[in-house]
Design a protein that fits this description.
By secondary structure, the protein is mainly alpha-helical. Helices cover 71% and strands 5% of the residues. It has helices at residues 14-38, 62-72, 80-110, 120-131, 134-180, 185-201; strands spanning 44-48, 54-58. It has a two-stranded antiparallel ribbon with strand order 1-2. A hairpin with a 5-residue loop joins strand 1 (44-48) and strand 2 (54-58). Residues 79-113 form a coiled coil. Its main location: nucleus. GO terms for molecular function: DNA-binding transcription factor activity; protein dimerization activity; RNA polymerase II transcription regulatory region sequence-specific DNA binding.
Amino acid sequence: MGRGKVELKRIENPTRRQVTFSKRRNGLLKKAFELSILCDAEVSLIIFSPTGKFYQFASHEMERTIARYRSEAGLSGPNDSHTRSLEFWRREIEELQKTINETEAQLRHCIGEDIEMLGMKELKQLERQLKTGVERVRSKKLRIAAEQVNWLKGKQRSIQEENARLKKRLHELHDGNISSRIWEPTARKAIQLRTIDDGSHH
């Protein structure tokens, strides 16, 4: 006679539940290892016990397998937020540079430089400004424009420093992924086997 279907339900007895967990966990880790060897499969297994203890098996580097899973599943990667931040600061730098160029051009016009390209309307406007008092216009506009240019340049330097910091962080994340792949898969498998054997003796 064949065995009847066993009903799966939560084991109420804490001791029996822990014993069953240990046996099934070791069996699952062993099956994962066998699957990776027999079928040359890339296998990663993560287990949290009822008490929160962590167990894992990885035929290859765990982070690489997780990254591959996220890519196949169409999930965003851990570096996406940094990439968006870099793009935001890049646009900010471009806008600030444009404002700086316009301010410096206005400053040059006020002191009589680079006015060859101005039309009649712009020249009349500039003349009216200068007629209100050459000395007052010169001193005030030079002071305000210089302060504005210095402030914008300082802000631009701050944004460029933040941009460099984010780029460095991206490189560190990338280099970390590369360095973690130095682990030999066979050594990882040996460690997992030792973990399985140790667990089976308990």
